[in-house]
């Protein structure tokens, strides 16, 4: 399992691995928002949590179609299926590798980009907390979507359509927690809901992903 | 007896391709599969490797004992030869890749990126993976594609030493490997798919 994680991380950081793709997209979205919305500081401050969350979600979505498709194309997936490693563990590790290369950099970059959007000072901590709690769910759900569409050529659009509705609860509670934090309100209720969603998807989704992979490759 | 296949009926893309197929594979035995294109060799091998389920029949002894090598080698272009092999060795719980590098003469290439290898060199890397799996049964689909004469000899030697240590191999190939192996022609077991006249794969893809 550790071997698979290390291999995925190594591949992500090598040339053409796609590390930084999500981060660059996140940067572009959040720097362009002030230009399109206009330089009203109060308005920017009030939409900042939502914009940052939406940017993070779309950045996560961007790299999903590579998650399993590359392994499928070069035959690695077939060989992994015949290896002694349980498939549930393999998809969990792939989701973890996706989070480490996409989700975690977004969490770390969000406070810096919050400055560009005039996020109120009280919001930074809660923004990071909500993203750190919510982005693992995005990776795990995304792995499920990638498993569903793995054999399909140009499955990226289908993947987005399948995954976006599943992302909605995470987005609602995540952005709500960040917004409440920014306004100085108590963000604990949405944070608890968000943590619940994340833990539930981490517990259940690998089984669903492994099941659809087994069916899809047959 | 390592592997036993009984009264197997297989389909590809919903169309039956093979029916009533049965054979056994003993330790130290190699079985060569022959049959025209589209006869179902790949389908049979994928089924035995557990990548596909049969319509009916039983495959006994195939749990976690099979190392499968298909048309694709599962090589990551951006990892070096050594890293590629090391990864599979770790997945299968083996640490040592030196013997695998040796038997396919991959030592001079060990630190090259796999993406820069030629087709035959990639195949050699793909086949050397079998040696780090430690699995007793090798299920190989056209293993000699794009190998030159020397590499085919390396492959035959690897299969021979695998058989000598109590392993078994099931190989779909059209060339003569110089092995003392039984040949199983699957043509008599072909299913009659009445609605589909040809034997091409077009109907399934």
From TrEMBL, chain A:
It comes from the Bacteria. The keyword Repeat does not apply. It is a multi-pass membrane protein. The chain crosses the membrane at residues 12-37, 43-64, 96-117, 123-150, 157-178, 190-213. The keyword Ribosomal protein does not apply. Keywords: Cell inner membrane, Cell membrane, Cytochrome c-type biogenesis, Membrane, Transmembrane, Transmembrane helix, Transport. It is found in: Cell inner membrane. Required for the export of heme to the periplasm for the biogenesis of c-type cytochromes. NCBIfam families: ccmB. Belongs to the CcmB/CycW/HelB family. This is Heme exporter protein B. The gene is ccmB.
């Amino acid at each position: 399992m550790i071997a698979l994680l290390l291999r995925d991380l190594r591949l992500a950081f090598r040339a053409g691995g796609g590390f930084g793709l999500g981060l660059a997209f996140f940067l572009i979205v959040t720097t362009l928002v002030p230009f399109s919305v206009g330089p009203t500081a109060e308005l920017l401050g009030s939409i900042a949590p939502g914009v940052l969350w939406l940017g993070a979600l779309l950045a996560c979505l961007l790299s999903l179609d590579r998650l399993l498709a590359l392994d499928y194309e070069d035959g690695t997936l077939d060989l992994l299926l015949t290896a002694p490693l349980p498939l549930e563990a393999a998809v969990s590790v792939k989701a973890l590798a996706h989070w480490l290369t996409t989700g975690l950099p977004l969490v770390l970059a969000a406070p810096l980009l919050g400055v560009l959007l005039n996020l109120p000072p009280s919001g930074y901590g809660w923004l990071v907390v909500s993203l750190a709690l919510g982005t693992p769910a995005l990776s795990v759900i995304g792995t499920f979507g990638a498993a569903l569409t793995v054999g399909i050529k140009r499955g990226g659009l289908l993947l987005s359509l399948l995954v976006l509705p599943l992302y909605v609860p995470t987005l609602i509670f995540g952005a709500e927690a960040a917004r409440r934090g920014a306004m100085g309100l108590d963000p604990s209720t949405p944070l608890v809901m968000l943590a619940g969603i994340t833990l539930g998807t981490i517990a259940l989704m690998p089984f669903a992903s492994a099941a659809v992979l087994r069916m899809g490759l047959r | 007896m390592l592997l036993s296949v009984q009264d197997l009926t297989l389909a590809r893309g919903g169309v039956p391709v093979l029916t009533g197929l049965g054979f056994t594979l003993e330790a130290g035995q190699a079985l060569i599969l022959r049959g025209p294109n589209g006869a179902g060799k790949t389908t049979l091998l994928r089924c035995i490797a557990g990548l596909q389920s049969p319509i009916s029949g039983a495959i006994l002894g195939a749990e976690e004992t099979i190392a499968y090598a298909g048309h694709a080698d599962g090589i990551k272009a951006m990892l070096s030869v050594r890293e590629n092999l090391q990864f599979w060795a770790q997945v299968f719980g083996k640490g040592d890749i030196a013997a695998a590098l040796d038997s396919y003469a991959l030592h001079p290439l060990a630190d090259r990126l796999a993406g820069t290898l030629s087709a035959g060199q990639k195949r050699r890397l793909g086949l050397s993976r079998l040696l780090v799996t430690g699995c007793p049964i090798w299920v190989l689909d056209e293993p000699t594609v794009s190998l030159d004469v020397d590499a085919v000899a390396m492959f035959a030697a690897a299969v021979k030493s695998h058989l000598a240590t109590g392993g078994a191999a099931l190989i779909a190939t059209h060339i003569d490997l110089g092995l003392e192996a039984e040949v199983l022609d699957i043509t008599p077991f072909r299913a009659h798919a009445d609605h589909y006249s040809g034997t091409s794969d077009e109907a399934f893809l």
